[in-house]
Amino acid sequence: MNELTGQAATNSEHPNTRRGRLLVLFVVFQFVVIPLGSYIKMIPVRMPPHHGELDGDLQTRVSEPSQCREPIQTIYDATAWACSRWAEVSGQRQGWALFVTFGDRASFPIVELQWPASEQRSTVRLSSHFEPDDPTNYFYWPEPCCRMWCYDNRMVLFHAALSRTMIPDAEEFRKASFDAVRSLRRSTSAYLRWKTDHYLQANPDVPPPEHVTLIARVLPDPRPGKSYRDRPAALEIPHARWSPARTIPPDEVPLEAWDPLEAKFVRLKISEPS
Amino acid sequence: MSDRMTIGVRPMLPGCLKHWHWLTAPVPAERLAALRIGTGLLLLLDVLLTYYPFRYDYFGPGSLAEPNVFIERLTSPHWAWSLLHWFPDVFTPDVTCVAWAGAALALAIGFFPRIAAVIAWAFAVSVYNTNAYLHNSGDLIRQHLLFFLMLTPCGAAWSVMTPAGLPRGAKASIYPWALRLIFLQLIVMYFFNGVYKLASGLHWRDGAVMHYVLHTPGWCRWSPPFDLPIWLTAGLSYFVLAWELLFPVMVLIKPARFWALMIGAGFHVGTFFSLEIGPFGLYALMCYLPLIPWEGKTARTDANKSDVAVAEYLECVPA
Question: Strands B27-28 and A211-220, how do they pair?
């Protein structure tokens, strides 16, 4: 007899079995870790700052380690560590902050292929599939290539999220811009190479380009209260440049970064402090 | 429920938890089966439509994931893992997509459903970690759903394979802990979204965010056909924020529960068609499937009763 429901003849295992006890531990653990995994992201913990490809981790870091209160800080640190490792192993990642910092502009990647003057070829511009011809008048259905939007978007996310208005200090903005190229150097290199490969496969008679440039095409939104037709003019900001034939020293970023102050591409060291 | 046989391991919950009817009383297995079928079919479509045609672009040599673009998350101090990274010669783009689609199909029809869920979960995690930039939070929901499906007797109903011990034609019930955890996940997801928006979403606080969402090409699938008044976009912004923050409370109050869930379902359907967020909305809707009385209770519901009465059948929160 099922003591909970009064129903007869079940084939469920008696709770006092090893599996039943393990299941209890798991269920209780889950009831704790699901909310805790999100909550702990908001508590500052001692964790080295993240550099590298975007990982979407929302974990708040302690800004002044010397002012931490012990032993509670150690408990926070350990909890954040345990929740993060569990999330990575199980795929049960927490930390939900969807559309939180939605900006006021769109940013689309443009890949520009350039050949040496001796080739006498015009520059080729490869636009994003997701950029509408007319941003004031467009519509499209959900598409199978929707996942590519996520990748496209991240390539120029820096220019959608940040601008000189938000970082008025020119030197600070330059550092942030260099950091963006340095952190996303692997994905940006792969993206530029992939776009180039696709173009060359479609045009087998064309030689490899000398330079491949990633440009952010920024479409500012109309301000609230303005008509949807009153979109500010789009602007294009060079972001990074890849030179397929260039030999890259092991300590150097395989891309050149656009220097917004000097208005030219510059080389970066991978470990350069920013 | 008296004619049903309960399938699965019964957790011996401690203290007051074991007397919590919501958490312990078996529920019709159709609830879990609906989640299994919905998730399996959606995953099958996802793999066949959004991965398979682009598999060489997304995975393997020369793809957007190579060489080792996302290696940082697979190395110390992180514990993330990927079958595609560990065994690149075995899990080629072709093998990955075919095996993953096969597992999704098996899950949907209930052919060794838990093993199918394990395989589908392993590929979901592996693919996410191999090329992270293809994915968004909808794919995290996918991983959560598959994780719970592989730990539960999800084939106890509407399955081509009858669970061991269940007589032919007999109906099954299951312990509801996994369905409750999925619902807890849904609550946590909405609530913390609201908290983050309130804490650090400048345009959520000033009410401008929906204006920007609806006017940002790329994110929005359509340009506004006419000028949207500020009161409308600001009202929408605050409505979404309030709904997310109040969701945990609304589902505890019977008269508000139905509407909290209806708003959520409507929100996901609406954003699927209007925003470039891939299958996020559809995977989120899968979390709602166990809340529907698939076992047929609604057929006995008095048609004259109000929505509140229908909502009482949504066995999602403590009664």
Answer: unpaired
